[in-house]
Amino acid sequence: MHFSALTSLKAFEGIAPADWAFAAIAMLLSYGILTGVLRLVLGRFGALSRRLRSPAAGMLAEVLGATRHFVLFFAALLIGLKILDLGARWDTAIVHGWTVLFCLQLALWVNRAVSVWSTRRMQHRESAPDNPVIVTMTAWTARVLAWAVLLLVMLANFGVNITAFVASLGIGGVAVALAVQNVLSDLFASLAIGLDKPFEVGDFVVFSDVSGTIERIGLKTTRIRSLSGEEIVCGNTELLKNTLHNYKRMSERRIVFTFSVTYHTVPDKLAKVPAMVRQAVEASGKTRFDRAHFKQFGASSLDFEVVYFVLSPDYNLYMDLQQDINLALMRAFLAEDIRFAIPASVQYFAQAPEPPEVASSAKPKAAA
C-alpha cells in the first residue's frame, strides 16, 4: 500500500518521493528559521525600546508583533514548493501566492500601526489632548485606504481589470451614498465637531431641554451623561443644529440676584444697603463685586439688584458663595433692623347698597 502511494505521488507532476521529502524538510526548516528570527527581532526591539524609552522603537516592536504565524507557515510552504520543479503553471501560482502573502501581511502591519498611533493620540495629555473624532476618523480612513489599495494590487496581480472594477465601485458608491445619506450627514457632522471643536469630552453643555456632560463623541452620535444620571444619545447632525451652551469653557460666572425690603425702611437705612451687600460679597471670597443699587419701587416692596462675579465656572462653588452672601445679609439687616419684604396685597370690600323698598321698610314708623 505504501509502495502504491509512493508510485502515485511520483506520478503527480513527475516528482520523486525523495524530492517531496526534501521539500517538506526545507519547509519545516524555513518555518523554524522565520519564527526564530521574528522572536529575536521582537525581543531586541522590545529591549531597545525599554532601554532608550523610545516611542518609535516601541511602536515598531508592536507593529512587528502583528506578524502572523500562519503567514510564516504559508511562506515556508512556498519556499518548499519553489525547490521542486513543478513547471511554469506552478511557478506562476507560487508568485501569486507570494504577492497575496506580502499584501496580507503588509495590511496587518498597517492596521496595527494605525491602532497603536490612534491609541497613543487618544491618551489625554495635559498640554494638548487630541480630539477623539479626528483621531478616529483618520484611523478609520487609513485602514480603509490600506486594505483597498492592497486588495486592488492583489486583483491586478491576478489579471483582473481594476480600471473597470474601480469604475463600477464608483457607481456603486454613489448609490450607497444616496441610500445612507443620513449616516453620511452625521459622519460629516462629526468631522465638523472635530475640526471646529465646539465641545470636547468632559465639557458640560446645555441645549434645548438637555443638559449634561459629554462622555463620548462618536462618528454618528454623541453620548451625554445628564444631571439625573441617564445617558442621552444625540445624532451629531441634530446636535449641531441647536444653539449649544458650553459651561466648561467659562472663566468666571456672572451672577445677578434681587431682594426687597419693606416700605417702612427709612431712607438713611436704605442708603446703607449697597455697602452691606458689597461687604457680604467680598467677604465670601473668590468673588468680584460689580454693583448693588436700589432699583425700583415695587408693588409692595423696595427692590434692590446686585451683580457680582464668581471667579470660577464651578456651579457648586457658586451656590456655596450665594448661600454665604444670603446669610451675611440676613445678619446685617437684623443688626440694622431692616426687614425683608413679604409679598402682600390690600383688598377693599364695599357693601352693596340696599334696595329702596328694603330701606323704607327698615325705617321706624312715626307715632300716631
Automatic annotation (TrEMBL):
Occurrences of domain Mechanosensitive ion channel transmembrane helices 2/3 (ranges): 142-181
Domain Mechanosensitive ion channel MscS C-terminal: start-end pairs: 255-340
Keywords: Cell membrane, Membrane, Transmembrane, Transmembrane helix
A molecular-function term among this protein's GO annotations: mechanosensitive monoatomic ion channel activity
Transmembrane segments annotated in the record for this chain: 20-42, 63-81, 93-111, 132-156
Highest taxon of the lineage: Bacteria
UniProt signal peptide: none
Residue intervals of the Mechanosensitive ion channel MscS domain: 182-249
A Pfam match: MS_channel_2nd
Membrane topology: Multi-pass membrane protein
Keyword Membrane: yes
GO cellular component: plasma membrane
Subcellular location as annotated: Cell membrane
Family membership: Belongs to the MscS (TC 1.A.23) family.
UniProt name for this protein: Mechanosensitive ion channel protein MscS
Species of origin: Pandoraea captiosa
